[in-house]
């Protein structure tokens, strides 16, 4: 059920602009699980660590991305902050918030947004391009996104809170954070899914001797799957 008017004016101006660019002349129905998140910006290839740090803060565990990286190093999952395995990322998250994280197949629109409505967060990898939007370069720009909300177009003026979705993927965008910017951003759902589905190789810039990549020529450990985090997993 739609609850009340969404406090659109409380959002940063850049986020307001991105929302209205997506919804057009009307408004949207918004579900957002970010009340306890302090946006962070990554240092080096630590997008996964930063995403986990923000997610954990939402669930009541404050831990710096640097501490998460050190844990990943001791577990043999990362050297510089890179993260090429959803399983590794879930395992690291569970080190700080036990039994909170699991890997699941890429959900369809209804499943994805039901998880958000249920208060969960989702970590999903995609190729990051201009304005941090999804692009399609076979995994050469693989990057982690913390999905913590959604916006759904509606044919009415204004923005309202919601805890349900009709889940038409062409009418919905993910609201989330990624480590290259501290601003809450808008990512069309179909674009994120399509970008994730073509994550095939790490690319020449990722020397396997300098990074931990389960298979540099097959990124199946981050393709067609997500990490789901909640207090009830």
TrEMBL record:
Family matches, as InterPro entries: ACTMAP
- Gene Ontology biological-process annotations: proteolysis
Catalysed reaction per UniProt?
Answer: N-terminal N(alpha)-acetyl-L-cysteinyl-L-aspartyl-[protein] + H2O = N-terminal L-aspartyl-[protein] + N-acetyl-L-cysteine
Q: Which GO terms describe its molecular function?
A: aminopeptidase activity
Note whether Hydrolase occurs among the keywords. yes
Going by the entry's taxonomy, the superkingdom of the source organism is recorded as Eukaryota
Query: Would I find Transcription regulation among this entry's keywords?
Result: no
User: What keywords is this UniProt entry annotated with?
Assistant: Aminopeptidase, Hydrolase, Protease
Q: Which family does it belong to?
A: Belongs to the ACTMAP family.
**What name does the UniProt record give this protein?**
Actin maturation protease
């Amino acid at each position: 059920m739609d609850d009340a008017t969404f406090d659109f004016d409380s959002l940063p101006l850049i986020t307001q602009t991105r929302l209205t660019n997506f919804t057009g002349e009307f408004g949207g129905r918004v579900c957002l699980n970010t009340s306890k998140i302090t946006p962070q910006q990554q240092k080096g290839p630590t997008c996964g660590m930063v995403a986990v740090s923000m997610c954990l803060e939402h669930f009541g565990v404050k831990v710096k991305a640097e501490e998460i990286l050190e844990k990943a190093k001791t577990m043999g999952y990362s050297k510089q902050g890179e993260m090429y395995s959803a399983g590794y990322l879930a395992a690291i998250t569970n080190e700080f918030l036990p039994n909170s994280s699991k890997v699941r197949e890429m959900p369809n629109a209804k499943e994805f947004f039901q998880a958000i409505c249920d208060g969960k967060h989702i970590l999903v990898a995609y190729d990051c391009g201009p304005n941090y939007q999804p692009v399609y370069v076979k995994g050469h720009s693989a990057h982690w996104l913390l999905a913590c909300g959604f916006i759904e177009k509606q044919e009415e003026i204004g923005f309202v809170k919601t805890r349900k979705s009709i889940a038409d993927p062409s009418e919905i965008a993910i609201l989330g954070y990624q480590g290259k910017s501290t601003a809450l951003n808008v990512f069309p759902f179909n674009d994120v899914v399509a970008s994730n589905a073509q994550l095939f190789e790490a690319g020449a810039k990722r020397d396997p001797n300098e990074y931990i990549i389960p298979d540099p020529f097959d990124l199946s450990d981050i393709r067609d799957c997500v990490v789901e985090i909640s207090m009830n997993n």
